[in-house]
Amino acid sequence: MKPDKLTIVRNWILDKIENGYVGGGEKLPTTREISESTGISLLIVQSAVESLSNEGALYKVPRHGVYVNKNWRSRILQRNVFLFDPKYELPYKQFLTEELAEQLPHLRIVSGFHHGMFEIRTTGWLQAHHDEYMPMTDMFAAISGNREQFAREPFRACFVDNKLMGIPIIYSPWLMFYNPKLLKDAGCEMPHENWTWNDFQRSINLLSNTTPSDKILNWVPEAFYWMNFIFRNGGKIIKNDGTVAINSPKTLDALQKIRSMLRNNHIKYNPELNYFEEFIKGNSPFQIHPREIIPIMNNAGFEDWDVAPLPAFENGCDRTLQATDIFCVRKECADTASAATLAKLLLSEKFQNFLAEKKYGIPIRLSSAEKSLDKNSGKDQVILKESTKLICGYNLPSTPLYEAVVIGINEILETDCDIDRKANELALMTKIFVGLSKEKESRTKQHNANSYEFLYAQAYHSEYG
């Protein structure tokens, strides 16, 4: 299916912006120049410019022309499809681009925008930003057909207040990928099903003698990384009942262990380092990541790797965070028909089987998952077993709280601050935030109830006098 002429012009303009030919605050070519370059009538070009101006990507200056908004990256355009950036090329990006060209040619996968009307996001992002998206409970019911053809458990990560806020397309447990040769050369014991945090520490200490500190481990100061260790130690940030547990003994113990591991071995986040590339080159012994890393290794022809569960903690919890690619739709969406078609495409056998072939995560469609996982593979057996231990609740249900907690925990892990004092401060801040949120929610419910009673009374008096 070919895109309409309005879409062609919009994409021509957006390509110029995203590829840097016209920067923020700079003047766009005139409508006549665009018409000559695209071979499309001046009237349609004007309509395209008008639509992009209405959506905030462009702005007009009377008698001077049309300019690119300086903040164009943060604008949310109705036809944009945004894919989260995992620091590597998503293996389904090209496939999805081709499918959109065939089924939804008016939609466009973006490369420079920070958002889209249609997005594929991660677990923690959706839970923290859920109020930005529309509920998809009814949409999933309408397009899914027999729900038994999809894995059930991964959907739990997408429910907020009993509403499905996104549709998962793949999921995976977090895992420990490792290079057996590098571990053997350093005299380390190989990770195994029952290996522990102490085993992991011994390996890290030995590797510090043979491997540069920034290449031992793909340390990233993000919640999805350190939250795994907090959970596995039996700790929590906020419990399921809303109780704040940042300063609980189990959480404090986990924070102390993580910080000691980082400090004793001089492990720091290096934003200049491509951790995936270093692992694939055979320069890095450990890579903590979900199954989504496998296509990268396969594409590079890298075979000297194995996988194990994340290390266990004594008296801890044998659970692992769920990593999920989730399809979300912004609540400002004016084209729910396209949203439903895109959701159906992502859940289709064709798309899910492509994910299976690439071994990207575990496809949400059960028949595709069976194609993706080899029951005779020891590596896949580890992944299958860990996928039965998933936990999906970050319990950080708003953007400001999520960001504040991440900043606070990273400060604990990366500085010399007193852990107990800082955790108590962070816990107090979180309690106040949660309390205010509950109070606001209560006021909103009361307001809605009062509004309902008022409207009901109006209707009653209008009907019966």
Query: Which sheet architecture does the biggest sheet show?
Result: 7 strands, mixed
Let me know the number of strands. Answer: 14
What coarse outline follows from CA principal-axis ratios? Answer: globular
Tell me the β content: 5-15%
What number is the mean pLDDT? 91
Question: What is the helix fraction of residues, given as a range?
Answer: 40-55%
Tally of helical runs: 18
Q: Unreliable runs, pLDDT <50, ≥5 residues?
A: 442-465
Q: Decide which structural class fits the backbone.
A: alpha+beta
Q: How far is the N terminus from the C terminus?
A: 58 Å
Rg (CA only): 25 Å
Description of the molecule:
It is a single chain. With 465 residues, the protein is an alpha+beta fold. 47% of the residues lie in helices and 12% in strands. It is built from 18 helices and 14 strands. The strands form 4 sheets. Strands 3, 4, 5, 8, 12, 13 and 14 form a 7-stranded mixed beta sheet that branches. Strands 10-9-11 form a 3-stranded antiparallel beta sheet. Helix 2 (31-38) crosses helix 3 (42-54), helix 9 packs across helix 10 and helix 17 packs antiparallel against helix 18. The chain starts with a helix and ends with a helix. The relative contact order is 0.13. Mean pLDDT is 91; it is low at 442-465.
